[in-house]
Amino acid sequence: MTNEQVFTEVQALIIEQLDADAATITMTTNFTTDLALDSLDVFEVIDQLEDKYDIEIDTDQPLSTVGDLVTYVVKTANA
Predict the structure, then answer these.
(1) Residue 39 binned pLDDT confidence (cut-offs 50, 70, 90)
(2) Structural domain range at position 34
(3) Rg, C-alpha atoms of the chain
């Protein structure tokens, strides 16, 4: 699995959840400051990723940007 594959999935989940424009979601997009997601919104994205990739995401990790989450998912899923 690659960063690009996971990024596409994360982007799709955020678009679905927020009805956001895909162009506004990049690897450097911050969940709270750029997308105004609250902790429940972020948890829902994380929960869907855990189900899709059959992994467990440690929410104590500093996952503030889309890139942070993508990197964490790729590293965990490929371990």
Answers:
(1) confident
(2) 3-77
(3) 11
